[in-house]
Amino acid sequence: MIGTLRGPVVDVPSPGEVVVEVGGVGYRVQVTPRTAAELAAGGGVPRGDGSGVGGQGETFLYVHTHVREDAIVLYGFRHADERRCFESLLGAHGVGPALALAVLSVLSPAELSTAVASGDATTLCRVPGVGRKTAARLLLELEARLVVPDLVGGGQTATPAKGPSLRDDAMAALVELGYGTDEVEPALEAAPDATSVEALVRGALRALARSR
User: Fold this and answer.
1) What torsion do the CA atoms of 201, 203, 204, 209 make, to the nearest 10 degrees?
2) Rounded CA separation 184/46 (Å)
3) Tens digit of pLDDT for each residue in 65-94?
4) By CB atoms within 10 Å of each CB, which of 55, 150, 159, 176 scores lowest?
5) Can you state the angle between helices 109-118 and 97-106, rounded to 10 degrees?
6) Residue-level pLDDT at 40
């Protein structure tokens, strides 16, 4: 798997793709439009008149290698935290590379972490293709994956419980998020005891994440 690339950007075929030359080989890398613009502005991209390469400045990208049945696609990021967020998003239920990259095209890692920590679905809905339901699911799942403050319980101690009512409500919430009952039941069994439906759902999401 390719983890990083270092070399000049020799082409920007589209707002979401750059070609990085390493050892005489050009690697096509999918990036956010903002990253493509930054790399193009930094030099090392062929001039439109065909008169050569302007700058030959090197760039460095953190790379996620995504293997599909029909292709191997590289996704590039200028900062390690962007790649970590991208991979956290990929681990969420129903999120593919296109949506993960779309999220990072709109939100920085800090903005995404803040939205997750504060339960801010409105911010996630700024991403094209993300509606309220998807945003709500992502908030729950990403809290188990991103490094964000633990908001469950507000830091207060309470007596753990996992009674039938909590379990049933958590089951309904997880099914509403798109999970099947065959996935949800073992995840709820594996989740720690909780004092609220929200905490139990989050524990089940963590169990689902570990099983993927």
Assistant:
1) 120
2) 52
3) 999 888 999 999 999 989 999 999 998 888
4) 159
5) 100
6) 78
How far apart (Å, rounded) are the C-alpha atoms in residues 205 and 139?
11
Q: How many CA atoms lie within 13 A of 83 on its CB side?
A: 18
SS3 73: strand
**Can you tell me the distance from the alpha carbon of 134 to that of 114, in angstroms, rounded to the nearest whole number?**
17
Q: Is 150 helix (H, G, I), strand (E, B) or coil?
A: coil
Q: Global pTM?
A: 0.68
In words, the CATH class of domain 4-77 is mainly beta
Q: Pairing between strand 17-22 and 4-14?
A: antiparallel
* Residue 10 burial (C-beta neighbours within 10 Å; 0-12, 13-18, 19+): middle
Q: Based on the number of CB atoms within 10 Å of its own CB, is 103 exposed (0-12), middle (13-18) or buried (19 or more)?
A: buried
CATH number of this structure's domain 158-211: 1.10.8
| CATH topology assigned to domain 80-143 | DNA polymerase; domain 1 (1.10.150)
CA distance 144 to 171: 18
Q: What is the pLDDT of residues 163-184, one digit of tens each?
A: 557 888 888 878 877 778 888 8
What are 114-156's pLDDT values in tens digits? 888 778 899 999 999 899 989 988 998 888 777 543 333 333 3
Nearest to 89 by CA among 15, 32, 146: 146
**Torsion-angle region of residue 146: left (phi > 0), alpha (psi -120 to 50) or beta?**
beta
